Amino acid sequence: MAELASLVQRLEVAVGRLEAVSGGAGGSPMGGSSGAVSVYVEAYDDLLSGPVAQYMSLSQQIGGDVQKHAEMMKKAFDCQRQFLVAASSCQKPSDAVLSSLLAPVSTIIGQVQSFREQNRSSPLFNHLSAISESVPALGWVAMAPKPGPYVKDMQDAAMFYTNRVLKDYKEKDKKHVDWVKAYLSIWTDLQAYIKQHHTTGLSWSKTGPVASASAVGACPAAGGAPPPPPGPPPPPMDLNQSTGGGDSGATSRNLLFASINKGSDITKGLKHVSDDQKTHKNPALKAQGGVVRTGPKPFSSSPRPTAAATPARSLPPVLELEGKKWKVENQEGAQGLVISDTELKQVVYAYKCNNSTLQVKGKINSITIDNCKKLGLVFDDVVGIVEVINSRDIKVQVMGKVPTISINKTDGCHVYLSADSLQCEIISAKSSEMNVLVPGEGGEYTEIPVPEQFKTVWDGKKLVTTATEIAG
């Protein structure tokens, strides 16, 4: 079955090449550059028929959510191939048109990531996470001048989860190990492909027509076709244009302003309504005019329009000592942050730092990580507590000693203990995906999960709570 799937993949690539050749023979607008341009489409086909086909084959063997995820990935790669074919025969368009050309791939990338979030209880969650973390690599076509390093960064983002897959299945099922190797080889080969054909950015045709929004054919969406874009907005109202003949528009405006300027006298022109003309005092009028509601209006089922959300402000990054507190705030993609001139009485507070690494040298009082995502922390010695709260995907490495580590309201926290910190107390609450890594012989770490599920029973005198292993 696996060999058949691989064969089908290769046949699809071959058919695509034949269609490209027949299209070129029918009058390609590429002119003399068609030979050079067709080379990188064929090279991309080699990627599809090689590591992508191998990844698809192994995903079908594993089945389940992994196979469903792989089918979505296959559509993303096919859609990107159509984009490359368009780029090989057209000149680079404006940014607005380019965004519309990239939209199909972007839509599938979003669906791939959503699939992982919708299946967090899947037994193959680590497989799904590896794909979800690295699939943005397909956005390399919009990256300049370093698309290759961008793909490498996305590949590295998957390493944490691929290592977990290798750890879980290394002694159980070699098929999953081969799956990891095949998937990672996609991004390795893509980096080599980019280095050869698109070193500083996507290579567009120099002689073809400027790409239009229809240059890329319809791509099969992973979860159904996205809704059509809304129509153009109505033309702006011309306040100077009259609504009738002559200058009636200007006359109407003048009358309006004149009425407003009357102040309280504006009510003098209102007509008095007698009691026999009021519907609530003359029931006969209700029958003549149909049903007339009395009292307050009923509640409307349609929601009230809400004010537009205030765009999030981008705050400047901070790394400074304020009194006894080291403030590390709003760091985005900052690799290699270091705090070295420390004292025992000082504390470190990291807030809203994403995709960054922080090293704290020396011995200090305490460290707090608050509202951070994908932050790596390395420190020497802490005499108080290291606290992680309201965060996600945090890695903490102890080089010296620490008495207590607290993890609260955090999803994904890995603590690497040193030989001197094995007596550390780890306190957790309302958190998930926590693991403690203990050093062993040869410098290798043993990963031990922190329990997330507990059993409580009444023994006749008190409640007794014990940790349980999650089934499956």
UniProtKB/TrEMBL annotation:
Q: Which GO terms describe its molecular function?
A: actin binding; adenylate cyclase binding
Q: Does the keyword Membrane apply?
A: yes
Biased-composition ranges, Pro residues, are 225-237
Entry's Pfam families?
A: CAP_C (PF08603), CAP_N (PF21938), CAP_N-CM (PF01213)
Location of the protein in the cell = Cell membrane
Query: Region Disordered: what ranges?
Result: 218-252, 273-314
Q: What segments bear the compositional bias annotation Low complexity? A: 300-314
What the record says about family reads:
Belongs to the CAP family.
Residues in C-CAP/cofactor C-like domain copies: 316-450
- Note the InterPro entries from the entry: Adenylate_cyclase-assoc_CAP, Adenylate_cyclase-assoc_CAP_C, Adenylate_cyclase-assoc_CAP_N, C-CAP_CF_C-like, CAP/MinC_C, CAP_C_sf, CAP_CS_N, CAP_N
User: Mind listing the GO biological process terms from this record?
Assistant: actin filament organization; cAMP-mediated signaling; cell morphogenesis
Can you say what this protein is called? Adenylyl cyclase-associated protein
Q: Which keywords are on file for this protein?
A: Cell membrane, Membrane
**What membrane topology was assigned to this protein in its record?**
Peripheral membrane protein
Identify the GO cellular component terms for this protein.
cytoplasm; plasma membrane
Q: What PANTHER family does this protein map onto?
A: ADENYLYL CYCLASE-ASSOCIATED PROTEIN
Origin species, per record, is: Albula goreensis
